Amino acid sequence: MDKPDLVYIAFIATDVEKLWRLLTSEADSPFWFFGCRIEIGGAAGGPYRVLGPDGALAVDGEILAIEPPHRLRILWRMPGNPLGEGRQNEIQYRIEPATEGVVKLSVSEFHHLPVPDAWQEAGREGWSKILSALKTLCETGRPLPLAMGEQP
Amino acid sequence: MSDSDYVYVVYIRASAQSVWDALTDGRSTAAFWYGRTNESGWRKGDTVIFRRPDGGIDFSGEVFEADPPHRLSHGFLHPAPGPMHDEGDTRVTYDIVEVGGGAVRLTMTHSGFVEGSIIRPGVARGWPVILSGLKSLLETGEPLPDRLDLDHVVECDPA
Questions:
Q1: A97 shares contact with chain B (CB less than 8 Å)
Q2: Which CATH fold topology does B6-156 show?
Q3: How far is A42 from chain B (nearest CA, A)?
Q4: What is the ipTM of this complex?
Q5: Which domains does chain A have, with CATH numbers?
Q6: Which of A10, A37, A149, B70 has its CA 20 to 30 A from that of A20?
Q7: B151 touches chain A (CB under 8 A)
Q8: Where do the DSSP E strands lie in chain A?
Q9: Which of B11, B128, B142 lies closest to A146 in CB terms?
Q10: Identity of the residue in A12, A132, A142 whose CB atom sits nearest the CB atom of B11
Q11: What angle (nearest 5°) sits at the alpha carbon of residue A41, between those of residues A35 and A43?
């Protein structure tokens, strides 16, 4: 479980604390989570939930580790989603300084089971939107208007 | 057997034409691609050359597909003799699609790696820097700082 199965990375011109605040802000989350809202506890063992734009529970997770402003690890359960059936994946956000004024944001996925292609495609789509939206929000102060499940 | 494709997706608030131009106008890449400039007519069959700041050729290839401003595919071969050259031609493909709201989805697929490729780990480190820099340049007018690129060049291209 120490080596991630999938990693998504973006470099963002911001500071570590600002990005951490965005990443853990329930109020700001719809602006970077394609309209979804997060609910997040403050300590390990606390909840991490993702609610869709319609209020439906998409992720019913749990905080496994929270080390402000650098690391957040979540048990990522997706009730009712066929993609998440029988899976207890872990998702880890890491925020690290890359150089002066730039941080490296990575999302790593840790799986107990082989990763199906459909999961990988959905993950690439979703995380790319999230990383792109966080970068735009940090660097321009304006949200990037992306919708969930929008397919080119 | 061959190593898997490396795919990077990024959403950019820009027109497809601006993304195309930044990749192909020859000079813009210097701001986000480790200082590299490029030379090509960008028509099918043309040669593409990417030059380092010292003028040396970083990689070159043939344009396989060019459908401006939406799809571009070209070869990627290190010209200097050595193990990276010996892996032969790999392929870089960009798909640029408008997604509404003044944004595009850019998908970069780097394919054609041999099994156990030493090129693939290097480009897997480089592409997030390059494409993050492209997004910053187009959305803010400012590239990411040079030092980031230089740090990663050392890691990315030990030759």
A1: no
A2: Alpha-D-Glucose-1,6-Bisphosphate; Chain A, domain 4 (3.30.530)
A3: 30
A4: 0.93
A5: 6-140 (3.30.530.20)
A6: A149
A7: yes
A8: 6-12, 37-40, 47-51, 57-67, 71-76, 89-99, 102-110
A9: B11
A10: A132
A11: 140
Residues 8-27 of A with CB under 8 A from B: 9-13
C-alpha span between A141 and A136 (Å, rounded): 7
Looking at chain B, the whole-number percentage of residues with pLDDT higher than 90 is: 82
Tell me: cis bond preceding A69? Omega within 30 of 0 counts. Answer: yes
Closest CA to A45 of A23, A29, A66: A66
Of the pLDDT bands very low, low, confident and very high (cuts 50, 70, 90), residue A145 is confident
Helix (H) or strand (E) holding B121: helix B119-140
Size of interface A-B (CB pairs under 8 A): 74
Q: Is A49 on the interface with B (CB under 8 A)?
A: no
Give B-chain residues touching A101 at CB under 8 angstroms: 145
Q: Report the DSSP beta bridge partners of residue A71.
A: A67, A94
